[in-house]
Design goal:
151 residues, 2 helices
Length: 151
């Protein structure tokens, strides 16, 4: 065998080994692509219903938020009306009720003095700062405090 024939055989063996490795790599790549395709199909089958459920949940939440917003607006309006009503009632009845209460207190006090038994000795005719026929108040009697001598 000549050198050219040996070189040709070596090149042919090298190409056979190279083609085998490339074929093996292509087979592994095909398996990987099949597994990835299967995985994508499964994810798609599960993701589509999940996305539909999520979309329905978001729509429901939006509807509930719209209801809460309208309820909040109604509560705010009721609060403003209650505040205005309270202010109106306070203005309309506050002053007169205080006056009626004060009048009632005065009437009760006057009736209490009228219905109390009169002490004839305590009541007398007053002449310019002096009481005729009655007792002097304790401060004027001089009997409140006695000054005692030292010792």
């Amino acid at each position: 065998m000549s050198g050219g024939e040996v070189a040709g055989i070596l090149v042919a063996v090298f190409w056979a080994i190279l083609v085998s490795f490339i074929a093996l790599a292509l087979v592994r790549l095909a398996q990987t692509l099949r597994a990835a395709t299967k995985l994508v199909a499964e994810v798609t089958e599960q993701a589509v219903p999940l996305l539909a459920d999520a979309s329905a949940t978001v729509r429901s939440a939006h509807t509930q938020l719209a209801r809460v917003d309208s309820i909040t607006a109604d509560v705010q309006e009721v609060t403003a009306n209650a505040s205005a009503l309270s202010s109106t009632v306070s203005t309309a009845f506050g002053g007169p009720l205080v006056k009626v209460a004060a009048f009632g207190y005065g009437v009760r006090r006057a009736m209490g003095r009228r219905s109390a038994p009169a002490d004839p000795a305590a009541q007398g005719t007053v002449f310019i700062g002096k009481t005729a026929g009655g007792k002097l108040p304790s401060a004027r009697r001089g009997g409140g405090r006695r000054i005692r001598g030292k010792g």
